[in-house]
Design a protein that fits this description.
Elements lengths: L1 E2 L3 E4 L2 E6 L3 E6 L6 H9 L5 E4 L2 E4 L16 E7 H7 L8 H22 L3 E4 L5 E4 L11 E4 L5 E4 L2 E5 L5 E13 L5 E11 L9 H10 L6 H15 L5 E7 L2 E6 L4 E4 L2 E2 L9 H4 L19
Antiparallel strand pairs: 1-18, 2-17, 3-14, 3-16, 4-6, 4-7, 5-6, 8-9, 9-13, 10-11, 12-13, 13-14, 15-16
Length: 302
């Protein structure tokens, strides 16, 4: 039921508040073999985007230094980031659309490294997208997360739990996210919510059909306030309660995100009087119920 009372909604969009002012291209010069190049890039600890006989990245030469037996890349181009996004790079015949894709992948993979470093497990979809989810081997998988953003948003939520199915069998549910980068005048990382299910708290259920069935049935009674608190508790844990998330992109280079997601005020609110109403129409547009993730946007293709 709609109510005329204005309401503040919490998104799952993390604002990008700082990026390096340039993007760099490194090339493997000389007679380096494909095997040597592959050996070099496998050892990089910061994000990179392979292109031709080299790669784009935000880091410096030290960040991409080769290991023994591997080829050493050399910095050959440094391009202002705004120019790269707006006009591409004509030396390589890269248009703006492809340039945005390069930057999106660099940002996304840097963010994914943070999620992996925090101990989150991964779940692969057929479209090559990943969900990063809370398993029972890390703290938020075993205890509720209390969050207080010092702006009125506070609460306490479990990011994993159990349900009982037919025959008394216990099934574990796990909260997760899939990150997508959206570039524009106000860039942000969109965290699409995911639910992963397991029998033991650690390995996802292998049956895609069963996973899809659980994804549709288990959260059917979950309301907006629960989804809101899930993302707020997840981000409070991810950021260690800080107002910003800082991710290294290389020597003296940082990706800085707002840890509190973007909020927006709408002129009406939804009351809970019809909480028992059929929600089939809501499920059709809710990504958590889908067996596959959203299509990659043009700004976030692999």
């Amino acid at each position: 039921m709609l109510d005329s009372t204005p309401e503040v909604l919490v998104s799952s969009w993390l604002p990008i508040v700082q990026l390096p002012i340039t993007v760099r291209y490194f090339s493997f010069l000389g007679s380096a073999s494909e095997e040597q190049i592959a050996a070099s890039t496998r050892n990089f600890t910061v994000s990179h985007y392979p292109y031709a006989r080299g790669f784009f990245g935000f880091g410096g030469t030290k960040d991409y230094a080769g290991t023994p037996g591997a080829a050493t890349p050399r910095l050959t181009h440094e391009i202002p980031l705004d120019d790269f996004l707006e006009r591409g790079f004509h030396d390589f015949n890269i248009q703006s659309r492809e340039a945005k894709n390069v930057v999106s992948v660099l940002i996304r993979t840097a963010f994914e490294k943070l999620l992996q470093q925090k101990g989150l497990a991964t779940y692969s979809y057929s479209g090559h997208s990943l969900a990063f989810w809370v398993h029972s081997g890390i703290a938020p998988g075993t205890q509720p997360i209390t969050f207080d953003w010092n702006n009125g948003w506070k609460g306490r939520r479990n990011l994993a739990g159990q349900i009982t199915r037919g025959g008394g069998k216990k099934i574990h549910w796990h909260y997760g996210v899939s990150p997508y980068v959206r570039l524009g005048d106000e860039p942000y990382i969109q965290l699409t919510p995911r639910l992963i299910f397991s029998d033991n708290g650690r390995e996802p259920i292998t049956s895609a059909a069963k996973m899809h069935s659980l994804r549709r049935s288990v959260p059917k009674s979950w309301r907006n306030d629960r989804w809101r608190d899930l993302v707020l508790s997840f981000l409070f844990w991810l950021s260690d309660g800080k107002t910003q998330i800082e991710i290294p992109l290389g020597e003296n280079r940082t990706l800085r995100l707002g840890a509190m997601p973007i909020t927006m005020q709408v002129p009406a609110s939804i009351t809970s009087a019809n909480d028992t109403a059929d929600q089939t129409h809501l499920e059709e547009d809710d990504p958590v119920f889908r067996s596959e993730p959203d299509d990659e946007s043009p700004d976030d293709e692999k």
